[in-house]
Amino acid sequence: MLEHCQRAMERSMIGIKKEDKIQNTVIRSKTKVTDVLTRIDSLKWRWTGHMLRGTQEKWSNIITGWYPREGRRNRGRQSKRWEDELKLTAGPKWRRVARDRVQWKLLEEAFAKRHTELRDIS
Fold first, then answer.
1. Average pLDDT estimate for 30-46
2. Which contiguous run of DSSP H or E holds residue 96?
3. Which residues lie below 8 Å from residue 108, measured CB to CB, with a gap of 6+?
4. Is there a contact between 25 and 12 (Cβ–Cβ < 8 Å)?
5. Superkingdom of this entry's organism (predicted)?
6. pLDDT over 70 (residue 121)
7. Are 42 and 112 in contact (CB under 8 A)?
8. What percent of the chain shows pLDDT beyond 90?
9. Which of 35, 91, 101, 109 lies 20 to 30 Å (CA to CA) from residue 70?
């Protein structure tokens, strides 16, 4: 919904109607506006690094490492966790990578780009 709203605002900025059937890439090159979903992913990545470099007493850091061990799991596909997304970009030792600011910053663009490509495919 955010992406749809942003596209509508960009068309309004340059005075193009939807009936003109101009590609989104052309509109984006004219407006030079950053994609809202890419920006969200970038901020999410930065916040994760900030959170993990902090003290262990923050609830957000504690809940990230928490695994419910009791009870039965539901049938069907496992629900995707935030940690799974981070592992795809930073690897299985993502918590250790997050402590190194320089390396974490380099992976930020890859994280945002991966999500943009996944959204374009689906």
1. 86
2. helix 94-99
3. 42, 45, 46
4. no
5. Eukaryota
6. no
7. yes
8. 3
9. 91
